[in-house]
Structures are given as C-alpha cells and as structure tokens.
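Annex B.
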Amino acid sequence: MVLIQRAEELALMDSALDGAAAGKSMLVLVEGAVGCGKSEFLQAVALRAADRAAVVLRATGTATERDRPLGVVAQLVGSAPAGTLPAPASPERAGCVEAQQAFTRAVHELSDTAPVVIAVDDLHHVDELSRRHLLHLARETRSTRVLLVLAASVHESVDDPLFATELLRQPNFVRVRLERLDRAAVATLLAGRDTAEAERLHRASGGNPLLLRALLQDPGTQPGGPYTYAVLACLHRCGAATTELARAVAVLDGHGGPELVARLLDIDAVAAARGMAALGDAGLLDGPGFRHPAARDAVLGHMDPADRRALHRRAAVVAHGMGAPAPVVAAQLLGARHTGEEWAMGVLRAAVGQFLADGDAARAAACLELAQEGCADDSHRAHVRIRLAAVTARTDPAAAEHHLSGPLTALREGRLPADALGPLARALTAQGRIDEAVEALDRLTASGVPGGRAEAGTGAGLRDVPGGLRDVPGGLRDVPREDPLDGLSAFPHWAAARQADGRPDGGGAGASGAATRGGLGPAAGSTGFVARGGTGQPAGFPARFGIHPAALWAVPEQVEAGAAAHVAEVFLRGASPAEGMVEPLAQALRVLLYLGGPARALPWCEMLAAQSARRGATGWQAVFGGLLAEARLGRGDLAGAGAAATAALDAVPGRGGSVLLSGIAGTLVRAYTAMGRTEAAAAVLGRPVPEELAGSVHGLAYLRARGQYALATSRYRAALGDFLDIGRRMKRWGLDRPQVLPWRTDAASALMRLGELQQAERFITDQLSRPDAADPRVRGVALRLQAELREPKERQTLLTKAVDELRRSGDQYELALTLVDLGRVLKETGEPARAAMANRRAWHLARDCGAEVLCEKALPGHTDGADPQAESSRGRLAELVATLSESEKRVAMLAVHGHTNREIALKLYITVSTVEQHLTRVYRKLDIAGRQELPVDLQVPADEYV
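HTH luxR-type domain-containing protein: predicted structure tokens.
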C-alpha cells in the first residue's frame, strides 16, 4: 500500500542512492502527517539500499527515550557491522566536539568499504545529543558515500530551532513530502471493488494509508477493532497535547472551530488551529469534525466517563457564552446530563423545535427527557411530558402513550395544573383515547381556565385550502379560538359546524363518563343515542369547546360525502408528514377511505407511508401503514392487507402496550380470519393489549377483529358481545357510521348463527334505513345477510342486488362471499348452469383475494390447473377481449356474474333481443361456445356500469 502514489518520491530516492554510491552525499528530510507512511517509506528505501549492497544504519526516536542521551546514536551503532562504529561516549563527554568528530570519522571510514545509508525515523523524538551528532555528520559528509535520510511529522517541530535551521542551510538538503492517497490511488489499490465502495473508503479514511488499511480489516468499524486502534495510534504518535485537542473536537462534534476549541481547552487559538490542521492532514478531521463517526467514538470511548461529562459541561458553558445555536449547546448539555445552569431549560426547549425541523426526533426527545429530569415544579414537568409524548409519537407510539401516564395519574389525583389540562386533552385525542381526553376536558371546564390556542405551526386544517369546506352546507364557521383541540382536525369548519348547528345530542354518559378501565368489557353509559347519521355530539360535552375529541375521528354525513372526499384529496395534495400534520392527514385519509372508497385512498396511503419510512418516522409509518392495510382490506386484498399491517407493526421498535398498534393488529386479525388462517389470528390476539384500549377508537377495530375471529371459530355469543360493545361505544362517542364500522350487520351475522332471526332482521333493517345505506358496500353486505332470512326466490333477488352493489364497491372478498351464496340458491331453484357460473366467478375472486377456505366453498376440490380457462392462452384471450365494444363488455360482465338475459336487459335499459345479439357477438369474437366459457376476470370500470 505504501508504494501506491509514491513513484516520484521513490525515483528521487533511487537517484539519491545512486548519487551516494558515486560519492555525492545527500541529506533527505521525509515529511508527512501521522499515518501517511513515513516509516514504511524509510523501510522501502532501506530495502533498495540493501539491494545495492549499501550498509544500512537505522534508528527511531521515541517519546519514552527522548531524554536518554545518545539513545538514537546507540541504535545506529548497534545496527552497524561489529566494531565499525565507536560506542557512544559517556554522558560527561557526549557533548564534546571530539565525540561528534569520532562518530563522523567512523561513518566515513565505513563508507570507504560500501555506501552507507543512515535512516532515522521520528526525528522530533530524537534526543538532543543524538541530534548534534547527526547535524555534525550532515555538515561533514558532502563528498562522501553517505546518504542521510530523516523522517519527521510535518506538524511536530523539533525543539531545537538551530538544528532545523542548519539542516535547511546544507546545500545537499532535499525535502520529500508524503501526501495522503488521492481517489485514483485508492481506486487502484482496491482494483476489482465497486467504484462506490472505493469512494466510500477514500472518504472515510481521508486517504490516510494507516486508516485505510484498518478500514479494510474492520469494515464494520466495531468498537475496539482495528480502526479504533489505528485512530488511537495516530493520536498517540502526535503527543498528549494533540490527544487532548482531539477529545475537545470529539465533544464538540463538528460544531466548533479553533476559537471554540481554544477556549474550551484554555490554550492559544493559534495552537488550536495548528493542532486541528495536523489532525486534518492526517485524514482524521474533515473541517471542524471527525471524518468518520467511528473515529469520534474511539476518542470518546477511551475517556474517563467523569472527565467526559465534565468536558461536555464546560463545552456547554463556553458555547452558550459565545452565542452558539441552541442545538449546539443542547447537545453538550445532553452529553453532560446537566441542567444546573439558569439558562439550560430555555436552551433545551428551543433546541427541540430545531431538532424536529432537521428530522432528528431522537435528539428532540432526549432534550425533553433531560428537561423533565431538571424540572423543579409539577406544572413544567407535566408540560414537558405531554410535549415528549407528541415528539415520541414520530418513532414509537407505545412510548408516546406511556409518556401520558404520569400526567393522567396527576389528573385523577387532582395534582395536574390547570394550564396542562388542554395540552393533555389534545395529546390524548391525537392518540385516539377518547374517554381520557373527555376526562381532561371535563376537568378543564370545571377549572374555568381557557383552553388556549394550539401551538403555532402544529396543525393545519382545510381552512387554508382554496375553497376548503366553505361550499359545503354548514361549513362556514371557524373553530372557537379557546378550543385546545384546534388544529388537530383536517375539517375544522365541518367539525365546528356540527357543534354550533346544534345537531342531535346523544344520550347516556357522554363526555362526562369516565374512561372504561379493565380490558375491553362493555362500555359504561346508556346506549340510547339518537342522531341523524350518527354524527351528533355526545350529551354533556361542554359547549365552550368547538370540537369533541371523537369528532376528530369521524367523517362527514352522507349529504356531504362527495364534497368532503374531494376536499380531503385537495388537502392531501398540498401536505406531507410533519409534526402537527399527521393527525389532520390521517383524518383526511379516513374521510377519503370511507367516503371516496378504498381504491381512491390507496395511493395516498402508500405515498404517506413511504414518505414516513424515508424520514425514519416509524411511528408515522405505522399510522399510515395501518390505514393502507385497512384500504387494501376494503378492496378484498387479504394478503396485501396482511402484509401492510405486518409492515406497520414491524416498523416500530416495540409492539406491546400501544392502542394504535392494537388497532393495526385488529386489521391483521381480520385479514388472517378471512383467509382462513385462524391459528395466525389467534396468535396475534394472544398478545397483551394496554388497558387504555377500552376507551380508544383503536379499541373498536380490535373488538371487531376479535368478534370476527370468534364468529369464524363458532363462538357466536362472544362475537355478539364484541359487536354490541362496538355499537355502545360508537353511539356514546357520536361515531355511529356504518360506512366506518358496520357493527349492526356483524351483530346480525352472530345472531343468525345463534338462531335469533328476528333480532338479526331488526339490526339489518336498521342498517338499511340509515343514510349510509346508500354506500354500495354497506348496502351489499346488508342485502346478502337479509337474503339468508328469506325464501329461495326472494333470496335470489336480494343476492342479485347485493352482487351489483358489491361489484360497484370494489370489495372483491365480499363479492366472492355473495356469489357463493348466489350459486347455492341458484342451484336450489333449479338453475345449475347459472349456479356454476356464479361459483366459478366466486372461486377466481376468492383465489385472487387469498381466501383459500372460500375457494373450497365455491368449488370444492377445484384447483387452478384443472380450470379450462386457466389452461387457455391468457395473452390471446386479452387481445380478443380488447376487440369487444363497451356495450358488449357490459353485457358479458353481467352474464359472468350470473344474471339472466332478462335481468341484464332491465339493468342496461335494453331489450332482451339486444342482449342476445350482444352475447352472440361476444361468443363469436372470443371463439367460445357459450356463457360457461366467458372469461371470469372480465371487468369494466364501475363508473361505466349503471
């Protein structure tokens, strides 16, 4: 490695060796930074000299022998042929000129027999008397066969200025400078490796051969590995002063120049600049900081912990005194674990915002944790804990929820200061913990303290979007300024209008009810909630606040659905994940998911989850990943939903003890249950859930998943209990929307299996009478269940309608379920051909969804390889399908779903004869015999079908 990029220097040394052999002595000073290969270069010169039959005398100066008189001369004598050089003089005579002359004369006599090469390394550590002998030799060997090669660090000066000056005065003096390896040299050295890898290694090592060799041996730069020791070796060879300076640079972590380093170490600024330049020339520093983080870790790791904290503390004081930015000072306070300065708390608070703006949530959380340790009163401590919860939610939802346990305990014990009630309610609402948020707002109302505005810049709603919801009926009023929840909603105008317009109030415990504790048992309070579309505010909620916590988890009424979905999409176009924006973004996604449909919400969920992942915001990734899983499940993509839910759960550091993650786990359980993977679903349900889940909106998703699992495993009463608990809570919170969670049809499914057919009919009728019944998925599922309560002929009619609705909804799994039921009833009514068509279509849908159990129900024993359609050429069939007109596609698609010609005619407002003509042309174009061979994956866009 040493010979790379050294051709010119070695050529010069070859010339010097040749000159010495010819009686033309030279004095060569080899300079370079620490680790740049001076010792290896001297070794190469010595080997070349030996090849020329020269006598090589070698010595090395060391810090430990620096005060030993004639120590280096003794090394030279010891390396010479026995008896050729005199032993060093006694200490009393060592400084005499006669002793120096005797040494020089002996070297000259030795050179008469062969050229002599004297190589001395680390000249700056050579003792004073040895330097005098070398200087005398240099003066007297101008016409002899002697080559004197000295090596010294470029930044380590010799204590004797006369020695350095005298060397320069010699006419045969030559200086050789060994620079660090450039990119081309490293690339040559690493020939065969990836170019990017060579560039990385050059950048990490700075071209220092010693560091580069260590990196090649220690690619992971493990603590205590070769790279660590190489860094420490470089510092050791530079001396104690440089080591102290390196520690200061490591503590400042690239945030201090020579002036700050000088003040921190109480040294001259020129000395600090010279020391930093030496470390830079050695490839250790890049500007004011270490080039490689492992180098900084090596320096700090070998400091005494107490000394390290003391240096951090002094650095904080010095940096603050010099007016350094808050993040720089805060980093030093963190290293020192010190908040004793009167300005420390203010610096930590100011640094939090900057760290978050830079995407460093971990540092921001660390500042808040340190501030919490230093808080002297309960009020400040509560505010810090609440702020810490909001910051931690970016990466760890479980930790974020845990941080609110202290303020909640203080709230229930009457110790929480009134000015912390509003921020606590806001944080709980953002986490979906409705009962506890209402508890805080109740106490805030009783205290008489204004809620206070939301922090500037922590939330943005659709009020800032051109048009916003100003064109939506009832959407003109602003959120009251004293509302502590202001800024959390993506629909502030709509949420405020619901309260101000006096929409029907719910009965029961309402906002004054305490949070349900102790698992997921029945919620407290009455279930007699009456509301138009389930959008009323729970009774008892203080009118002084514009938004009830549950409203931030709701969606607009059906009459506003189209406008709200459009505005949600407009809002999503102009926003990205950031602190204070996650809750509005998630609400806008929910609105788009439930009112605009899963297909419309899917790309937004994928984009926001990906953006959060790129930023390392694993908590936000879980939020949007959970919505992505729900959107895929709404499309019937069971495998995709399971994958998205698993990715969301795996993204965060710990799964246990989080209400958010429990809700996402519920989506995973629903996907597993629909796929028939009941053991996997049971394993997920077997994980512990937090006690707070009972009072959270995420608990609704978990209860539904648990109920559907119980339904699939024949525990019908347990399933019914979970579904009814959902209804109670949704009514109590004013969230009773079948589009969001159709608990009535879930409960009807359990009741039918229990034989309670009249009760099941009541629940289904109730769902069909609500405005949300216009939603095709809500209506389709209700019609499918209602068909089970009817005679075969009426059942067939209801199932046909359900197929149409579910096809429009885009939920392929629910459509497959309905087609299986339709196939069964068609077989019962004596239409086996149509039954086979419906079952074939159901089988293909179930296979695409990943529902193997449903595949077996549709076509028992059927496999994809046995299907004639699967054996045909799909490429040729796609080309033939492309030849169909849109009218022919619509007719063929309805035929695939099992409709008769008359039913197709009624749906498309054409005659039966026209239907027959269309089908005849379809059969001819596709080269098939009839309906049974129609491609089951034939589709037209939902908006083209009426």
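The chain has 45 helices and seven strands. The radius of gyration is 41 Å. Further annotation is deferred to the next reporting cycle.
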